[in-house]
Amino acid sequence: MDATANMYLALTVALSAGIIGCLNEEPLLWPDMGLTVEHFPTSGTALPEIIGASLEQLGKTYHEFQDIMDSQVMQHYICVKRLETSKLQSMSPEAKRS
Questions:
Q1: CA angle 74, 84, 57 (to 5 degrees)
Q2: What is the CB neighbour count within 10 angstroms for residue 92?
């Protein structure tokens, strides 16, 4: 999450993801508590490393979030982030910093 993130949307998405996991009876890959390496999962799907891949993955699953949140904010978020990403890709590194 970056400094421009909406903390209410981030919290809502985190809670919604937990509810979706419970409804779909998803197994917990991480232990509830503990910081030792031997408890870290060795299987599962890795998170996307770039924004484009993240938006693509979110585009496949945002309907579940919309149902739980009873809002179309996720669809709007994806559209805005895709536009923002395309604008940033066309800018020079100097322009991105200013």
A1: 45
A2: 8
Q: Give 80: exposed, middle or buried? Use CB within 10 Å, 0-12, 13-18, 19+.
A: exposed
Question: Residue 41's CB: how many other CB atoms inside 10 A?
Answer: 10
Tokens of 58: 């979110």
Compute CA distances 33 → 10, 30, 41, 94, whole Å: 22, 8, 13, 43
User: Is this prediction's pTM over 0.70?
Assistant: no
Residue 38 Cα distances to 18, 28, 43, angstroms: 24, 15, 13
- Summarised one tens digit per residue, pLDDT across range 37-71 is 566 666 677 778 888 999 998 899 888 888 888 88
Angle of CA points 86, 5, 67, to nearest 5°: 90
